[in-house]
Amino acid sequence: MSSLRSRWRRARWSRVWYRTLLLTYPAAFRREHGQDATDVFADVAHAEACRGNVALLRLWLRSVPAVVRGGLQERREMNRSHPDPSGPSWRFETMLSELRHSLRALMRRPGFTVTAVLTLALGIGATTAVFSVVDGVLLRPLPYPDADRLVDLSHSAPELSSGDWGLSSAGYFYFREHADLLDNVGVYSTGTAVISIDGEPERIDRASVSASLMTTLGVAPAIGRPISSADDTPGAAPVALLSHGFFTRAFGGDESVVGRQILLSGTGYDVIGVMPEGFGFPSKGIDAWVPSQLDPGARPVNSHYLDAVARLRDDASAEEARAELAALLGRFPEEMPTAYGGGFIEQSGFRVNARELLEHTVGDTSTLLWIVLAAAALVLAIACANVANLTMLRAESRRRELAVRGALGASRGAVLRYSLLESVAVALVGCVLGVGLAWIGVRLLVLSAPAGLARVDNIALRPGALLLALGTAVLVSLILGTVSAMNVGSDLAEQLRSSGRSVSADRARLNARSVFVVAQVAIVVLLMVGSGVLMRSLFNLRAVDPGFEADNVLTVELSISPAKYPDSALAFQAFEQMLDRIRGLPGVTAAGATTALPLISAPFQNANGVADLPDGSEATMNIDTRFISAGYTEALGMELIDGRVFDRRDMDTANPGAIVSRSLAQELWPGESPVGKRVRPLMQDYPWHTVVGVIDDVREENIKYAPEPTVYFPYTDLSWRSFTFAVRTEGAPSAILPAVRQEVWAVDSEVPIASVATMEELVGQKLSGTTFTLSLVGVATAMALLLCAVGLYGVIAYSVRQRHFEIGVRMALGAQAAQVGRMVVGQTLFLAAIGIAIGIVLALTGMGVLESLLYEVTPTDPLTLAAVVIGLVAIAALAGALPARRATKVDAVVVLQGE
Amino acid sequence: MTKNPDEELSSRLPVMPRDFLILLALAEGEAHGYGILKEVEEETGGGVTLDPANLYRSLKRLMKDGMVTESDSRPAEDLDDERRKYYGLTALGARVVEAEAERLRTLADVALARNLIPQSRER
């Protein structure tokens, strides 16, 4: 059935194909026999289609020369019987010869052709490549059914911290039960686990998910069964879903693994299924999904670590859902007093957000990509202006030729067509080359994309982008065609007269070209200001003191097996041994462990108890919390400003220590030393921790944001088996890695070492978003600047050529070479000045879009504007200097004699 | 200005190879465009596949020259296809096929007599 339908479809295309080919025949023939011939062809095509696609394709291709030859012969025969020069057949043949002529003319002037084609290819290539990225990352829906119904749920508490918070376990259950406008809600959190594959310990990324997560997304396992709600009950036997990649990598794609038990960090998990290829939520790197087994009956606590995704009911908008969630949030204090009582919501500005999942996934990159696309489009605009200019110059140098053709009887239409065909040829070749460049560009963009750019694997050169390239080419041909048309005057005699020697350049035409040059300069100003402020922003960011020293620090992630170290004390004994051995290495000055490196991993937003407040009271507060070992603050080079740093004593779980940041100390105990005060994490029944020291503020979350008040607890508070080690070295940090590895394995040879990086690399990656934008906008600016300089030079050089006679007369009348040179440069600067003025106005109004990417520099930074103006004036002067030099070499005698 | 039949016939000769193939096909009986195409393919053992537009160019010329006519008669109803035009030979067309075939045979005989046609291909 389906093959019948597809054959029918191909037959339909055969008709379209053949009818198009028949256009080579005269209209009269088509009227009389076109339908019959097409019917017959469709029959033949149907017969061929039964023999397969290749046979059909061969028929299609075979018919091209046959039909075209027949059509041309038919036209010739018709002309012989009805010689009508204005008839349609005459025009067709003429057009072919005109096309040949145009191509030959283009070949004869490779300078013009190559420049125009390359310029266009650059513009089209850049735009197409960047559009492909925008399309893949921002425009394509996420790979889930009805993905536009998915929203990301989160909280924020602007009075407490700048970042987004997850849902609390109690909040999740409450929303899931009471939000009518949400079809379903799923939650997840990510972490790591250790698995032994072929005896080698490997660290894998896993996500703990609610059973509802996969149903919310609308995704089912490719093999096996999904996580059921029974699996997701506290105390149920642990099960795991594997990612397709992990299934292939670790188990060779052997389906018998489903039903077997695997050991993840020492706990046995039954493998119940494998997710489809390409599925990765929340990120591609997740290897396994396990049920989070949250307890709906647990005492609600103010701990927000669950990421959440919800599916909107079909008839509900995100706006309505937000309103409903906000109303539900208002009931939190009475429903969950243990977590949200005591005015917490009012004091923290606590609220709930529902953002489209795509928007959430893409995040800040959205602005960044649109800016890069705008930059590419501006380059394309400059490229078009440039080619238009080139075409005009060329058309003008041939005005005489065209006028002669006109005088010899070529109709105005024929002359126009002749120029238009050239433009079309240039634009199409430029388009093809541009698509080639885009193909390379897309690959380069993907390779250089900043770490964490979402959906990078979704970027490809798609038909949409190709259509865009083709559309651009068509548009360009139209522009160029119009430009050419402007050069074909109506009065031939007038043209013949004026296209010879002229005393002054034709003002109207020079002005048209000046307009293009002015527009180019204005666009370049826009691009230069954009990349200028981005550059300043990057310098500012790099100059920020984050509160730690990133150089000479090696970081590695270590995970030990809970099965091997069932007791926390044993585990920490092993970690301490490893750290001690590393500290003993030559060239190592300090080493310590942490749960979360500054800038790289988010801190816990923990409810903490605080005692000994100035009025003697105790309080519960949400404070950024990090867990560290002794030696960590030294390894990261954090500055101690009061008391002492952690040592082994503070790791004692019976009598633990704590360190607070300067701003936390000021907030809690203004004017007094916090040393000796008490704080504690409230996740479990921890004893009070005694503050032993104060360190200077560290920009833990984001280098752009002011440091958050932070408390540091001993890492022994946690029952984790996975920490990041930071090792400060005297020399290059990466050189010490083999020695570090050896010391770790001397303690336990089964410990996997993962995520090896220097702190400098990690911080660099954090800035990579800005660096990426800057480098792309920078490249765009450089291209635009080059094209613009060429454009300026072209116009001035041409006008100097046109004014040879005038200059000759001036020099004969006693003008000095220097005066003539000044005149030419002055003309260039005049054009540039108009462009700069317009560009500055545009920049002042339009640069606001960059605001969110900038750090401590305004989008209309005066210093940048000044630098751009000076730079452009210099370039304009340079572009004018060459023609000016030529102008001063004009020999008055020769010129005047020539006239 | 009417020509006598012999004169009219000889002015049509020789017939262009493609036209001759079409006339031969129609000599078998009336046919529509696709039928002629298939018949020609058979006549030449699949060696010649006419392009439909070129077929109609030939038909148009042959009709103008009075050798082919669009036929009013239709084949049996169940074989008929409403949209198709059928073509047939005129009396002149039939005589032209005959004369051209005769002319070709004479030429072929000459070639045969001079041993220009290999024995294996002799029928």
SS-derived structural category of chain B: mainly alpha
Portion in strands of chain A = 15-25%
Helix amount of chain B: 40-55%
Strand order of the largest sheet of chain B: 1-3-2
Q: How big is the Rg of chain A?
A: 36 Å
The overall average pLDDT of chain A, rounded, is 82
Multimerization state? heterodimer
User: Please, what is the average pLDDT of chain B?
Assistant: 81
How far is the N terminus from the C terminus of chain B? 44 Å
User: Which percent range fits the helix content of chain A?
Assistant: 40-55%
Summarize the largest interface: chains and residue counts: A-B, 23 and 16 residues
Shape of chain A: globular
N-to-C CA distance of chain A: 81 Å
DSSP E strands of chain A, number: 22
Description of the molecule:
The complex is a heterodimer of chains A (899) and B (123). Chain A contains 29 helices and 22 strands. With 899 residues, chain A is an alpha+beta fold. In chain A, strands 1, 2, 3, 4, 5, 6, 7, 8, 9, 10 and 11 form an 11-stranded mixed β-sheet that branches. A 6-stranded mixed barrel of chain A has the order 14-15-20-17-19-18. In chain A, a hairpin with a 2-residue loop joins strand 3 and strand 4. In chain A, helix 4 crosses helix 16, helix 19 packs antiparallel against helix 25 and helix 26 packs across helix 29. Chain A is globular and about 105 Å long. About 1% of the residues of chain A have low confidence. The model of chain B has no long low-confidence stretch (mean pLDDT 81). Classes of the chains: A alpha+beta (899), B mainly alpha (123).
